[in-house]
Amino acid sequence: MASAIHPASLCLFVPTGNSSTNLFFFRNRSRIILTQKKCRVGVSQHKRVISCCSVEPFPRRRICRRDLALVVLGLSSVSITLPFSATLADEELKMASFMDEINAYSYLYPVELPSKKFLFKWVESRKPERYSSAAPLSPDARLRIVSERVDIIDNLIISVTIGPPNSKFIKSTDKSTWAAKDVADSVLSDKSALRVTSSQRLAESSVLDAHSNEIDGERYWYYEYLVRKSPTRLDQESIYRHYLSSTAERDGYLYSLSASTLSPQWKKMGPFLEKTANSFRLVSPTEEYVPPYKDPWRFW
C-alpha cells in the first residue's frame, strides 16, 4: 500500500514495506527557452541575442513543498550511482539556456553528456513569477524564490532568489565597495524558513570561498558554501548540500542563482554546477519585466 503527498506541483509516492523503489512524478508546467549551445543569452533592444563568451572560472506557493523536495533529494542519494567519472568535467557538455523575462535574467544548465549518452532529468518545479507573489524563504519574506528547477534523480537543484541587501553586512549603497563575503553573508542570513535571527540563519551555512568579477560592466559576486542544517546521515557520516552561487544587484535588490548537490556527489557534479553559476547574467529588461519594488501588495 502506498501513501501519497501532493504539493502544488510535486507528487511524491513512497512505497512502504520492503520495497526499495521510490517513484517520483512531477507535473511540468515549463515555459522555458531551450537552445542547445554553450553560449550566453542576453536581451538587447527587445531582441534575444545569443553570444559566446568567456567566463572567469569559479575558484572554487510554499516553503513546505521546497523543504520536502530537499529531503527527498537527500534520501535518494543513498542508492544512486552516477554513470560517469569526475574526469568528464572537461568533456564536451551540452547546455540549454533559460530566460526569465519577468525578472530579466538568464543562465545555462547542463542537459547532456553525448559521449556517455547521459541525460540530465530537469523538471521546472517553480515557474518564473514576480517578486511580490514568489514563495518566501524566511518568515520576514525578504528573500524569495522566483524560479527553481530540480533533477531529483541526480540530486541537483538550481534556484534563483531575489531580496534586498541586509544592512548588517552591506552598509554602503556603492556596490563597487562591496566585499564578496559580505554579499554572501547578506544573502545567506535571509535564507532560512525557521523563525530565528539572521545570525542563527547564517550559522547554518559555511562559506568556503567568495570573490567578485566584473562582466560586461556588471559586478557579480561568487561564493561557495555548505548548508549544515538537517544533514542526511549515511554510515555515521553527515551529508550536506554543497552550493555554488552568483549574485548581482539591480534596482536595490540582490538577484542570486544557487546551484547545489549533495556533498558525496560534489566531485562529479560540481564542475557542471560551476558552469551554471558562472553563466548567470542580468539581462536588459523587456516589456515583460516587473521590478521587485512594483506593486508589493500584488500576489498573483
> How large is the count of helical segments?
4
Q: Which structural category do the helix and sheet elements fall into? A: mainly beta
Beta strand %: 35-45%
- Report helical residue fraction: 10-25%
What's the β-strand tally?
17
Largest sheet: 8 strands, antiparallel
Shape: globular
Oligomer: single chain
Q: N- to C-terminal separation? A: 38 Å
Mean pLDDT: 74
Instruction: Report the order of strands and helices.
Output: EEEEEHEEEEEEEHHEEEEHE
Radius of gyration: 19 Å
Unreliable stretches (pLDDT < 50, length at least 5) are: 1-64, 74-89
Summarize the model shown.
The chain is mostly beta strands. The protein has helices spanning 63-76, 180-189, 198-203, 266-279, and strands at 2-5, 10-15, 23-26, 40-44, 47-51, 94-100, 105-113, 118-119, 123-126, 135-136, 144-151, 156-163, 205-215, 218-234, 237-250, 253-262, 281-282. 15% of the residues lie in helices and 39% in strands.
What key attributes describe this structure?
PsbP_C; transmembrane; 300 residues; 8-stranded antiparallel beta sheet; mainly beta; disordered N terminus; transmembrane helix
Task: Write up what this structure looks like.
This is PsbP C-terminal domain-containing protein. Keywords: Membrane, Transmembrane, Transmembrane helix. One of its GO terms (molecular function) is calcium ion binding. One of its GO terms (cellular component) is extrinsic component of membrane. Residues 95-281 form the PsbP C-terminal domain. With 300 residues, the protein is mostly beta strands. Helix content is 15%, strand content 39%. It is built from four helices and 17 strands. It has helices at 63-76, 180-189, 198-203, 266-279, and strands spanning 2-5, 10-15, 23-26, 40-44, 47-51, 94-100, 105-113, 118-119, 123-126, 135-136, 144-151, 156-163, 205-215, 218-234, 237-250, 253-262, 281-282. Strands 9, 10, 11, 12, 13, 14, 15 and 16 form an eight-stranded antiparallel β-sheet that branches. The radius of gyration is 19 Å and the shape is globular. The N and C termini lie far apart (38 Å).
